[in-house]
Structures are given as structure tokens and as C-alpha cells.
Amino acid sequence: MRAWTWYALVAIVLFSAWVQWTAVRETRFYNLGGPDAGSYLSYAYNLREFATYSRSHTWTETRPSPPIPDAVSPPGYPLFLAAFLRGGPDYAFHQRVISAQAGLGVLTTLLAFLLALRVAGPGVACAVGILVAMTPHLVTISTYLLTESLFTCLLLAATLALVIALQQRNRVLPWALAGLMFGASCLVRPTLQLLVPLSLLVVIAVPRYRPWLKQVAIAVACACVVLLPWFTYKASLRANPDQPDLLRATLYHGSFPDFMYDGDRGTKGFAYRFDPQAAEVMSSYAGLGHVVGQRMAADPLRYLRWYFFGKPKAFLSWDNASPGAGDAFIEPVVDSPFFHRTSFRLMHAFMYGWHWPLMLLGIAAALAALRRPGLLGAGVDPPSLRLVSALAITAIALHMIGAPYPRYGIPFWPLFYLLAATGLAWAFRALRDRLKKPGID
Question: Using alpha carbons only, what angle is made at residue 385 by residues 131 and 218, rounded to the nearest 5 degrees?
Fold first, then answer.
């Protein structure tokens, strides 16, 4: 790296640190969190107090008894929270967690810069680092007791490790590290865990990828080392019909067009709470297929529009679907620097205006890179760009099947920024070269 790139990196990281810790210091909350945060707190508290993985809210009880273990949510984020508990989940605990998550936000900016540097060079890296540091959503997620902050950091770490592994093909350590990081990210948010076996199957099935079999097998084996204890624990528990099935829930919650029940705006974000057939759906996959299948058959065009156009749009949307919050906030807050600081409001306005152009450019660049990775010009590493493109498009495809809540898309925004910046850099170079041609003024 040239000296100016190092200076730019330091400046961007310091800027990110100021933004993150200012948000943590000046955000005021109504409470410590909603239902999801309460579940993660319960898992963390029960692990510390009873050495039992359970979502029972024993921390709200005066004399709690040992809870019954369950395996509804993966353990990555609860283990993270457990490291900050000193007794009950009080205000001091909350401050320790969000301060640590602000640090993760700064690390996310650093990782995004290094990833873009490896894939497309210093100019794109600077643009991506600044965009990640300025994005309101990537700042506000640090203030909630939710998985997004930790998952975003681990996702970028895993992607960077995979890019390094691709570029150092015959070294075992980068592939092993990539597998470990990817496995860790799946323990926080299980959406991408299907890619672990799928990547191995693709390498075996597609002849041109078979020379990579050994390397991919190492990464997959290391990911399985991280994931296997969790799956073993899940298999050891008795089936409990009273515990929700997260896969069935995400398929069901994602089946409501525009997140509304019967088009009623008052149900937006929580359509399943108003569905009289919810009990039948959540009782079995047969019930899910029966109810959702009937609804699709009754209005096929509406569901086709939702699944193929509405879901990708929702997944990449700026505005969160949470009632009472929205915009860059997953849950309502009393105050935020985005409400009263001019600098933060300017950042918000800039990123709001550029949001959809960046998302659409990112998708276009991803599709171009998957088809012809060398098309986006000199200074780009084609295999790495293809990997980032495949991950970004896969994220959209998986959420077209399940629930495409906008908060689920936030961790993938840095990948779309990288792709969009790469596409813009190529367009700028192409325009510059064209203007330099003789006879063109």
C-alpha cells in the first residue's frame, strides 16, 4: 500500500470511531430492547447463572428456578452478551455491550476498507470505507441488543478471509481461517449456513471448479468444526411443540405481501399476529404449505410480484419495517445524534439520497462480474470480485425465500457498496478514456 492509502485508512477509521461512539453516547432509549433482545438476554443470563441454554425470562423473576433448555436461536450473540454480564442485565450492562458494539462498528469499517482494497484497489477502498462509516444504519445497529452489529463484522471478516484465501490459493491457513470465520457468522445469523455444504457440492459438480476441491474442503471442514457442537446440542434435545421453529417462522413471516395481513397497513411488520390461521401454519410444515399455497392460488399475480420484486426491494430497503421506528432505527429511540447534530443529519441526507443508486449499481455490477468479471477494468481481481458478487446475489435470493425484513439486509450493504464503487470506477475510467480519444472534445 502507498503512503497516502495508509493515511486515508487511519483518517477513515478515526472518523468511524467518532461517529460510532458519539452515537452510543448520545442515543437515549425507551427500554433495553424488544422481544428479540429479551430472548438473547435470557439465553445469556441463563448460561451465566444456570449453565443452561434457555430463552426463559428468569432474569425478570425474583426467585428463578433452573429453566428448561431449548435451541430456538443460535448461540453466537447470546455468548457475546454473556461476556458482559455482571449479575442481571442492568443499564451498566447495556452500556458495556453497546460500547463494545461501537468497537465492532469501527472494525467493520476497517474490514470493508481492506476487503475493497484487495478486490478493487485503493480508490474504491477509500470510497467504501467512507460510505460504511457514514451509513446511519451501520451506526445505529451498534446501539441495539440485536445480532446485526456482530453479524456484520463477522460476515466481512469471513469474506475478507475468503478473498485472501483465493489470492493465496495454496496456503492452508487462509482457507482454514475463512471456514472458521464463516462458521462463526452462521452461529450468529444462520441464514447463510446452507452455503457451507452447497459450496462443496458446487466444487464437486462443476468441472472447472474441481481444482479447488482441496481448499474448499478445508474451509468447509473448519466451518463444520464451529457449527457441529451446536447441531449436536440441538439433536440432543427432545422435540417441543411449544417452541417455535425459526425456519418455518421465517418462511411464514415472509409470505405476507408487503409484510401486511390482507393489505391492512395497521398490520405492517407483524402481519402474523393478525392471521386467524397462524396456529395451523406454525404447527407443521404441512400446515404452512396448505395455508400459503391456498393464498397463492387465490391471487397468483400478487404473490409473484411480492416474491420476485417486492422481496428484493424490501430486503435492500432504507426504511425499516418496524412499527413506531422506521428509517435508520430498528426500534424507537428517545434521542439520537441523527436528530440534533448537523453533521449527522448531513450524513443521513447524503446516504439517503445515494441509497438506491448504490444498491442498484451494486446489483448491476454483481451481475456483470458473475458473467464477465474482467469487464470492470484494470485494478480489479476478477475471482475476488466474482466471490463478493456471488455472496451479495445469494443473500438476496435466500431472503426471497424467507422473510426479507430490511434489518436483515443491513449487514450486506458494504458488499453492495464495494460492487457499486467498482462499477462507478469502471464507468469513470471508460468515460475518461473515451474523452481522450482524438476527435472528441
Answer: 115
